[in-house]
């Protein structure tokens, strides 16, 4: 389950299946049920592949967060996952950071500047 980094940001340490689908399902449900969800950082360090179901879940999570003016950041994306994102064109719609600390810092800076993080 995602851990709270702050009251405004949650970070999810993702793993390969079946954990990936379960974690994304929980995150989507949490955002749908919340009137004020946090921004979300997805750490892909433990993920070596994505399937079509995972991609659909990522798009759904992005859509739900967008409805609440919240941002989604991917970090620590490995070469195999990056290849899938490139081939599908998803590299153009998601925002990426090198590692969790960079993703968190970027969201915190945007929040402090009053922008939509």
Explained architecture:
With 117 residues, the chain is of the alpha/beta class. It is 46% helix and 21% strand. It has a single domain (3-112), classed as Transcription Regulator spoIIAA, CATH 3.30.750.24. The chain has 4 helices and 5 strands, in the order E-E-H-E-H-E-H-E-H. The protein has a 5-stranded mixed sheet with strand order 1-2-3-4-5, sandwiched between helices. Helix 1 (19-33) runs parallel beside helix 2 (52-67). The chain is globular and about 35 Å long. The model has no long low-confidence stretch (mean pLDDT 91).
In short:
By secondary structure, this protein is an alpha/beta fold. It has a single domain (3-112), classed as STAS domain (Transcription Regulator spoIIAA, 2-Layer Sandwich). Helices cover 46% and strands 21% of the residues.
Characteristics:
117 residues, 4 helices, Transcription Regulator spoIIAA, alpha/beta, 5-stranded mixed β-sheet
Map the helices and strands.
Blueprint: E1 3-4, E2 9-15, H1 19-33, E3 39-46, H2 52-67, E4 72-75, H3 79-88, E5 95-97, H4 100-112
Parallel strand pairs: 2-3, 3-4, 4-5
Antiparallel strand pairs: 1-2
CATH architecture verdict: 2-Layer Sandwich
Briefly note the CATH topology name. Transcription Regulator spoIIAA
Assign a percent range to the helix content.
Answer: 40-55%
Globally, the shape reads: globular
CATH superfamily: STAS domain
Oligomer: single chain
Q: Briefly, what CATH class?
A: Alpha Beta
Return the string of H and E elements: EEHEHEHEH
Q: Work out the radius of gyration.
A: 13 Å
- The structural class is alpha/beta
Strand content: 15-25%
Q: Tell me how many strands there are.
A: 5
Low-confidence stretches: none
Largest sheet: 5 strands, mixed
What's the N-to-C terminus distance?
A: 22 Å
Q: How do the strands of the widest beta sheet line up side by side? A: 1-2-3-4-5
Number of helices: 4
Please state the average pLDDT score: 91
Total discrete domains: 1
């Amino acid at each position: 389950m995602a851990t709270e980094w702050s009251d405004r940001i949650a970070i999810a340490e993702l793993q390969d299946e079946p954990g990936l689908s379960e974690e994304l399902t929980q995150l989507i449900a949490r955002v749908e049920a919340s009137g004020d969800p946090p921004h979300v950082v997805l750490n892909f360090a433990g993920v070596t592949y994505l399937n079509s179901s995972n991609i659909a879940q990522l798009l759904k999570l992005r859509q739900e967060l967008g409805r609440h003016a919240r941002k989604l950041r991917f970090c620590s994306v490995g070469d195999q996952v990056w290849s899938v994102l490139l081939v599908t064109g998803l590299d153009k719609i998601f925002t990426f950071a090198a590692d969790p600390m960079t993703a968190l810092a970027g969201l915190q800076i945007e929040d402090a500047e009053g922008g939509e993080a």
